[in-house]
Design goal:
By secondary structure, this protein is of the alpha/beta class. 31% of the residues lie in helices and 31% in strands. A 5-stranded mixed beta sheet has the order 5-4-3-8-9. A two-stranded antiparallel ribbon has the order 1-2. A two-stranded antiparallel ribbon has the order 6-7. The longest helix has 14 residues.
């Protein structure tokens, strides 16, 4: 499996999405894409992160940029989370960890003394030609939105 690398075209992938659709990366050419990976729907940090993208959607839209969130939750769970939070973007279900592997976001995590493999909160900015321009790993939700918007504005 090929991994995404900075300043390289991101390998194509396809995932089931909210809105009864399938998201295929190669079909998004011509738009900038912010893909954010998060551990789990309906948890505090993940909710806050989604809300910050939601609350600034106009700034992204003005720069011809779409946002998609990715976790291992099912599309059904995503639909509920999206509706509850009024997210104006799609959430992708990556149960098989296809996109997670492309972006190498599954890592060993520790929580309350327990070790497990999970999604490390990460965001990637892909330009209109499909090239990975920026990546943020181990994201801190509070300051993250400004960093992403600055990077989108710099494209």
């Amino acid at each position: 499996m090929q991994h995404a690398a900075l300043d390289q075209v991101v390998p194509d992938f396809e995932l089931p999405s909210t809105g009864d659709t399938v998201f295929r990366l190669s079909e998004q050419q011509g738009k900038n894409i912010v893909i954010y990976f998060y551990p789990k729907d309906n948890t505090p940090g993940c909710t806050l992160e989604g809300q910050s993208f939601r609350d600034h959607i106009d700034a992204f839209t003005a720069k011809d940029t779409i946002i998609v969130g990715v976790s291992r939750d099912s599309v059904r769970v995503h639909e509920g989370f999206k509706a509850k939070q009024n997210f104006p973007f799609e959430l992708l279900s990556d149960k098989e960890e296809l996109a997670c592997k492309v972006f190498d976001v599954i890592q060993l995590k520790k929580n309350y003394g327990r070790e497990y493999m999970g999604i490390v909160r990460s965001t990637f900015l892909i330009d209109k030609t499909g090239v990975l321009r920026q990546e943020w790993r181990n994201v801190k939700v509070k300051t993250h939105l400004e960093e992403v918007l600055d990077a989108v504005n710099a494209l």
